[in-house]
Every structure is written in structure tokens, then in C-alpha cells.
């Protein structure tokens, strides 16, 4: 099953796993040592991360190493960027409106004095 990158990063444990393996390649057991949950639970999180392409597993001898492949996060970044642009434009428009409103109030005050 191919999973969605948004689903993968929705869980705080998976985000923490991504942070760990982004710094260095770790065995699945080394990843599990950082959590207070069972090894099978960590394995399930790692499986989800591999299914969405954020982590790859490399076999080295008898060990399986988790490596971060963060290119998929570009999809998240692009999605967020559209909302950043939207809100930046809205806040800029609000700022202009408030600035013009203050000018109008200042002119009105000056005329009334």
C-alpha cells in the first residue's frame, strides 16, 4: 500500500523517527531504543514511513539501516506555501486598509480642529 506523506507526518512518533534518521542512518533497533513503545510498534511506524518514501531500509550484513529520503517533504512544503502566500496577501491587504483608514481618520481630525 502506498501511503500519503501527510499521513506519515501526522503522527508525532513518526516525525521524531524522521528527525532521528535525518541526522544519521540508524538500525531499526537503534531507532526503537529512543522510544518507550514496543519494537513492533516502532517497526510499524517505520513501515509507514517507508511506504510513503520518507525512509528507505538498507541491508548491511545482518543489520537493516533506516535512512531518511526527505524529497517527499517537498510535497508538504508546496502545499503549505500556497497557504502562506494566501495569508500573506490577506494580511498585506489588511495592513494597507488599516494604514489608509488611519490616514482618513487623521485628515478628518485635522479638518475638525
What does this entry look like structurally?
This protein has helices spanning 5-9, 12-23, 28-32, 39-51, 73-112; strands at 26-27, 55-60, 63-68. The protein has two domains: 5-68, Orthogonal Bundle (Arc Repressor Mutant, subunit A); 72-112. The protein is rod-shaped and about 85 Å long. With 113 residues, it is α+β, with helices and mostly antiparallel strands. Strand 2 (55-60) and strand 3 form a beta hairpin.
Shape call: rod-shaped
Q: Cα distance, first to last residue?
A: 73 Å
Strand count, sense and closure of the main sheet?
3 strands, antiparallel
CATH topology of the largest domain: Arc Repressor Mutant, subunit A
What Rg do the Cα atoms give? 24 Å
Counted beta strands: 3
Name the CATH homologous superfamily of the largest domain: Winged helix-like DNA-binding domain superfamily/Winged helix DNA-binding domain
